[in-house]
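G.,

No rush on this.
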Amino acid sequence: STSMHELGQNFGHGLYAQEVDYLVDQEWAMTSLDILKRRTKLYLEFTESDVQVLDAYLVELHKHRLEKDVA
């Protein structure tokens, strides 16, 4: 990506939507804990509210992809 805007939503601590999307698409990450604990060390820095924001994003991402697959 060439700009911060292209990285998508900033979840804090250097984690952006584009990376989350990649982890879901390519590494089969399903939950925020999956991303934060198994694929990064960000669980050391994320607060509970940070995790809630990431969870909400993942719910919408999975919902959107399920709708796309059904269509």
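When you get to it, here's the other one too:
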Amino acid sequence: LKALLDQAEAIREQIAALTFEGPLAQRQITASMGIALRETGETVDDLIARADQALYDAKRSRRNRTCAARV
């Protein structure tokens, strides 16, 4: 899970570092991410639900953040 969290954080940081020209020059784009690893015997629907909950946790706590799903 740590490696996945590190990869998601690197992507999030790359998104936040993007710069634009023209009408978007003064804008910053950020991303909130929720990640989860599939547990033994877990359905895909349950995996997606846990990742979705982690995303909402990231958005609630502060935007531009990555959160891992609880097991």
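The chain has a mean pLDDT of 94. DSSP finds two helices and two strands in the chain.

Enjoy the weekend,
O.
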